Amino acid sequence: MSYLCVDIGATNVLIGTVDNDLEEIKERSTESFFRNIEKELETLRDKVDQKEVFVAAAGPIDKNEGYIFPPNLPENRIQILRPFEKFFEKVVLINDCNAAALGEYTYGRTSAENLLYLTLSTGIGAGVIADGSLIQGATNNFAEVGHMKIADEGECGCGGTGHWEALCSGKNLPRLAEREVGRRFDSAQAFFEEYKKGDEELKPVVEKVIDYNVTAISNLINLYDPAHISIGGSMGLNQFDLLVDRGRIKEKVIHKMPTIERSSLGKKVVLQGLKAISEKEKRREGDYRDF
Ligand SMILES: [Zn+2]
Q1: Edge-to-edge order in the sheet of strand 67-68
Q2: What pLDDT is attached to residue 289?
Q3: Using one digit for the tens of pLDDT, what is the confidence trace for 31-55?
Q4: DSSP-based three-state secondary structure for 9
Q5: How far is the CA of 144 from the centre of ligand 1 (A)?
Q6: pLDDT tens by residue, 227-269
Q7: What is the structure's pLDDT at 190?
Q8: Rounded distance between C-alpha atoms, residue 77 and residue 61, angstroms
Q9: Which residues surround ligand 1, an ion (CB under 5 A)?
Q10: CATH of the domain at 42
Q11: Domain contains 102
Q12: CA-to-CA distance for 164 and 172, rounded, in angstroms?
């Protein structure tokens, strides 16, 4: 009995079919996925025998009305449920970091009952497992930590100033670099490639990002008291050792310092979370509102 899981990221979409295990993972650019969405979904529907799909998208999402707000596309408000409902009998939409937290909790290496999943990617977001339960919030957007104010500089896509995401996300880090050292980079990845070649001029930018990450992550630990923090997202996975300074975070933590590691499930963490939601639902465990 196979079904579909779709992880809609700001830059790429990951699609997995589940038949006991997660298998056959495909990757598309988010732009091309939405350009060909109906054709794509029609093909995918024929690959699974249960006409159900679990969809994760970067927050904030409007779960009831079925809208997502992708930060990187020309169209910044997309009705997601309608095209899926055309081809699938059942569609479940969830915030991607919430799914990832559940994925890490269910299938990851950690055995922590209090866990925070953090994505450092095009945007910054989190998902929280507290005392063994996924916390979703009133609108399924719990822990939009990228919009926590940590400085007085940096315009955020949401209209605010000094939000963590406005300074340290993959999308906004090049703007920070331009303000600090007057040089333009097409992407955070291009910035880090240049830095790792030994370009000392970029060091103050990296130090500033580390400072901001220390402030933000220690705030989160003091607020949520996790035993473990799992960090994912393309920047979180690729630049973990550079950007996460555990020693300095520990100095700002008022209680026990959690373990902080790169996500043990890597790029598949959100898809694994969707699989976990499906299995929870099949067992009819009552922890998850609407599931
Ligand atoms: Zn913001």
Answers
A1: 61-62, 67-68, 78-79
A2: 47
A3: 899 999 999 999 999 989 888 999 9
A4: coil
A5: 9
A6: 999 999 999 999 999 999 999 999 999 999 999 999 999 999 9
A7: 97
A8: 10
A9: 147, 156, 158, 160, 163
A10: 3.30.420.40
A11: no
A12: 10
CA 282–ligand 1 middle distance (angstroms)? 36
Asked, for residue 238, whether it belongs to a domain, the answer is: yes
Does this model's pTM top 0.90? My answer is yes
Write out the residue range of the structural domain in which residue 62 sits.
3-96+267-283
Q: Are residues 246 and 133 in the same domain?
A: yes
CA of 170 to the centre of ligand 1 (A): 14
Q: Which amino acid is at 122?
A: T
Nearest to 58 by CA among 45, 48, 69: 69
Over residues 149-173, mean pLDDT: 95
Residue type, 126: A
Q: Is the peptide bond before 258 cis (omega within 30 degrees of 0)?
A: no
pLDDT digits (tens, 9 = 90+) for 84-142: 999 999 999 999 999 999 999 999 999 999 999 999 999 999 999 999 999 988 888 89
Looking at the chain, which runs of residues are DSSP E strands? 3-8, 12-19, 21-29, 52-57, 61-62, 67-68, 78-79, 90-95, 115-120, 124-130, 133-135, 228-232, 259-262
Q: Is the CB of residue 93 less than 8 Å from the CB of residue 27?
A: no
